Amino acid sequence: MMKTTMHWVVRHGGLPYLMRAHLGSRATIVSYHGVVSDEDWRDWETSDMVSVSAFRRHLTFYRRHYDVIPLRRVADALAGRGPKLPRRSLAITLDDGYCNNLHCALPVLREHDCPATVFVTTGFLDGTV
Question: What is the CATH number of the domain that holds 49?
Answer without folding.
Answer: 3.20.20.370
